[in-house]
Structure to design on (883 residues):
């Protein structure tokens, strides 16, 4: 009897182990196992500590495995990791070069893994300059073709175009539904994107923690898992005509390289045949995707922006850092333009600061997505200092270039010259502000008779006024002057002069009312009750809930990221708004250029100072907001409200090298299920708030309002209880949340913060008036009494470069990286195919269409001269101009 029971057990074991699995779709396929280690610059510790870990625990062991095993492959996500390693181990350069050439060591094609729509367009392009291009400069036989950005639930609309036109074929993403996609930009250019769902997914299937170390699970457990998993994937592969090639991204944060040789032998010789599973081999992402694409599968196309769900991590919770970054990107682009012009004027490139630009751009794009984390206060400070360093370098290089140009300008007046420079590619008429040093001079003083005036080169007076400085820096022996700088040429300058008034000059009448030829304004306690557009005959505001420009505060509990699939929205706890305190506006500036009203009010945790500036001759209203003495209380958020008098409406906003219209330009539907615990079910069109560059906008089909933005995030939906249906444009000023890392820091930002916004209204939508809002976000530059060496030969007003039509924008003018030619980059913003007509102040002998990182392309019939440069709708193109 005992023997019978034992026999039954024995027979049952034999039956289990003798299961014959039927052949499957993947049986004769291959599983490409790609070893990597997800690396933020910081996050798991400070940048220095993480760089040291990458050095000793990731890259060095991977190199040893690569050198000892001719089958082993390894992938590193970003070029910055290579530069850090080579800085410490230059002796390994030759070995790394051989491994790259063998195709077994792969480096990501970008400098870091950024929040894409946090950066502007040129900053994103410089990711490829300092990624793929720099790699190919260091290792001429390398060809990095994969952009890794594995962690962020967000994609910039124009990123596929930037990648494709930089010679990059593939993109790895995660926190997105699993699968293969052809991700396209609206111009039609595209790359192949692969999402493993979450970059952790394969490691969860294959690895386990044992004695504090990650090790492989037993082969039978892995076989059981992948037998089910591959069966689930079979219909997808068949539907899309995909070959039986499956990707296994073996990665997680700080994962050490694993030697899988013994496991592969067991798997390929025993497990795979027994379970009818594909064999496994080491691979890189480029090799894997090359094999997948060889059969030309039918991939789903994705077009548009995926709004970033982690946007609270950067702008609202790191205001000072992001402001420095936004200033840096704009300043560096402007500095490149005018430094190029200065070199062309001299016909000599010796003083062009090529190395300084490279260093500044490295700083300007250094911060990745790893804000906060363990010792996050150190990481955040380093990120901020990188942005500030880039900004300061941009200021210095721009000023140097402007001074060189200004020395060559003729002066036909004995007055003090004010040379106004415009870095943008259209003519501008805007208010400018500068300071005059009055030490020892008989200049007018604030509050006395104005016995000086500002004139143009023809001696015609221009409206001006001496004003008090709206700044934290007190003026020492200086006066602040503002005037209307009219008709400043595209990428050029115009000279004005400060000269004495004479007896025939008449002082303009001063009107203190909040009204001009464009607007009639009614001020309310804590905001603006009414803005009536006299040209349109329209009341812009609807102020039954919020006043125009009203500051309000809400509770803002959130960790910014983590595994959240929805943005954590603010709530009504301790809600307050400025009108609750009934502050009174006071008239603080009166003059020929503008009038200004201001109030100061103590609210909970902060003192608020707001100023409204109404210009007499410019259709623009400036709103300035200071949060002074903010005490850094936990979980608070500050916004401004601009409630608009619209029923049906469209929202649009500036993104890197493009414009997103809400509900139109996002990727279709939801991002999908990324893992068992991460399922993105919200439609991308419904995601809010949004990341923004220069401006945001609302229109109802007949008229619109566009606002320049000094912040990185805005909203348009009422976040309060009993929300209204009409749009409320809301710049997000500040939020005191915390890092989602359990050991992470708080983002409190105590102290003083300063914000500036400009509002304008116009017929129809943004297309007719976006330039003024870009200009408000990127002010004109003024040189006061610049030194000169000789009489000069340049006219008092001049445009060095310009472009038509108005829907085409000059994004960059810079020295070519490899020669003394000039790089010109254009993009089309309105969705209208155009033939660009570029005017250059230097004679040219020809031009050549390049890719985005200045590499040659096959000869194309792409126009014949600067008067015929074809641009498809939404396209970005780069030319080399030969002089």
């Amino acid at each position: 009897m005992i023997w019978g029971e034992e026999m039954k057990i024995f027979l049952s074991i034999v039956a289990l182990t003798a299961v014959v699995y039927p052949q499957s779709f993947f049986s004769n396929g291959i599983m490409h196992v790609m070893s990597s280690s997800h690396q933020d610059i910081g996050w798991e510790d400070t940048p220095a500590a993480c760089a040291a870990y990458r050095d000793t625990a990731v890259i060095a062991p991977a190199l040893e495995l690569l050198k000892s095993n001719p089958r082993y492959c390894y992938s590193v996500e970003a070029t910055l990791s290579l530069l850090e390693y080579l800085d410490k181990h230059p002796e390994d350069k030759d070995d790394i070069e051989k491994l790259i050439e063998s195709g077994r060591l792969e480096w990501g094609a970008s400098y870091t893994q950024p929040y894409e729509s946090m950066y502007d367009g040129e900053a994103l392009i410089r990711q490829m300059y300092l990624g793929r291009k720099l790699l190919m400069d260091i290792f001429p036989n390398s060809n990095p073709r994969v952009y890794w950005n594995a962690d962020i639930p967000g994609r910039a609309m124009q990123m596929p175009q930037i990648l494709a036109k930089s010679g990059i074929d593939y993109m790895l993403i995660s926190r997105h539904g699993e699968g293969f996609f052809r991700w396209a930009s609206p111009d039609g250019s595209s790359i192949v994107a692969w999402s493993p769902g979450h970059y952790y997914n394969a490691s969860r299937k294959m690895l386990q923690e044992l004695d504090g170390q990650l090790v492989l699970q037993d082969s039978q457990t892995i076989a059981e898992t992948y037998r089910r998993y591959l069966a689930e994937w079979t219909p997808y592969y068949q539907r899309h005509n995909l070959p039986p090639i499956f990707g296994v991204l073996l990665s997680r944060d700080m994962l050490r390289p694993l030697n899988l040789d013994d496991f592969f032998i067991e798997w390929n010789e025993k497990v795979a045949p027994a379970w009818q599973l594909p064999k496994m081999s080491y691979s890189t992402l480029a090799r894997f995707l090359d094999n997948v694409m060889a059969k030309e599968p039918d991939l789903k196309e994705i077009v548009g922006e995926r709004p970033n769900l982690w946007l609270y991590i950067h702008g609202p919770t790191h205001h000072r850092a992001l402001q420095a970054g936004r200033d840096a990107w704009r300043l560096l682009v402007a500095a490149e333009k005018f430094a190029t012009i200065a070199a062309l004027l001299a016909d000599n490139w010796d003083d062009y600061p090529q190395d300084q630009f490279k260093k500044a751009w490295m700083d300007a794009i250094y911060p990745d997505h790893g804000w906060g984390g363990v010792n996050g206060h150190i990481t955040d400070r380093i990120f901020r200092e990188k942005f500030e360093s880039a900004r300061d370098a941009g200021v210095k290089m721009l000023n140097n270039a402007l001074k060189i140009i200004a020395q060559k300008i003729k002066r036909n007046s004995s007055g003090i010259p004010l040379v106004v420079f415009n870095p943008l590619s259209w003519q501008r008429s805007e208010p400018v502000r500068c300071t005059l040093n009055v030490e020892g001079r008989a200049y007018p003083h604030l509050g006395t008779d104005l016995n000086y005036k500002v004139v143009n080169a023809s001696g015609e007076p221009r409206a001006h006024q001496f004003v008090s400085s709206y700044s934290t820096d007190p003026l020492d022996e200086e006066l602040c002057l503002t005037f209307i700088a009219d008709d400043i040429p595209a990428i050029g300058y115009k000279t004005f002069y400060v000269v004495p008034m004479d007896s025939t000059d008449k002082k303009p009448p001063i009107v203190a009312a909040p009204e001009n030829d464009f607007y009639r304004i009614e001020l309310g306690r804590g905001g603006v009750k009414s803005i009536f557009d006299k040209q349109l005959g329209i009341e812009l505001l609807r102020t039954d809930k919020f006043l125009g420009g009203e500051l309000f505060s809400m509770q803002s509990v959130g960790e910014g990221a983590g595994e959240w699939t929805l943005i954590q929205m603010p709530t009504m706890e301790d809600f307050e708004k400025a009108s609750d305190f009934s502050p009174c506006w006071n008239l603080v500036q009166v003059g020929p250029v503008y009038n200004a009203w201001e109030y100061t009010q103590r609210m909970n945790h902060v003192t608020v100072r707001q100023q409204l500036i109404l210009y007499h001759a410019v259709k623009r209203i400036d709103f300035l907001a200071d949060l002074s003495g903010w005490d850094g209380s936990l979980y608070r958020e500050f916004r401004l409200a601009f409630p608009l008098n619209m029923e049906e409406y469209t929202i649009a906003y500036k993104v890197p090298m493009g414009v997103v219209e809400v509900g139109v330009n996002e990727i279709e539907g939801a991002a999908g299920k990324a893992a068992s615990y991460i399922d993105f079910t919200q439609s991308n069109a419904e995601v809010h708030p949004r990341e923004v560059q220069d401006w945001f906008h609302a229109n109802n089909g007949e008229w619109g309002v566009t606002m320049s933005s000094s912040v990185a995030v805005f909203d348009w939906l009422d976040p309060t209880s009993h929300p209204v249906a009409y749009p409320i444009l809301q710049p997000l000023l500040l939020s005191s949340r915390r890092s989602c890392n359990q050991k992470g820091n708080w983002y409190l930002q105590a102290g003083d913060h300063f914000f500036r916004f400009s509002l304008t209204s116009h017929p129809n939508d943004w297309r007719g008036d976006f330039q003024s809002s870009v200009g408000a976000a990127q002010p004109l530059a003024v040189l006061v009494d610049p030194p000169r060496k000789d009489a000069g030969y340049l006219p008092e007003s001049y445009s060095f470069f310009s472009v038509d039509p108005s829907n085409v924008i000059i994004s960059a003018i810079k020295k070519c990286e490899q020669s003394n030619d000039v790089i010109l980059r254009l993009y089309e913003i309105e969705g209208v195919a155009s033939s660009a007509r570029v005017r250059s102040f230097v004679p040219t002998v020809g031009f050549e269409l390049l890719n985005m990182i200045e590499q040659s392309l096959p000869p194309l019939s792409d126009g014949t001269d600067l008067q015929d440069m074809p641009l498809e709708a939404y396209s970005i193109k780069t030319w080399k101009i030969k002089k």
About this structure: Residues 376-406 form the longest helix (31 residues). The CA atoms of residues 95 and 691 lie 42 Å apart. Residues 416-508 form a domain with the Immunoglobulin-like fold (CATH 2.60.40.1180).
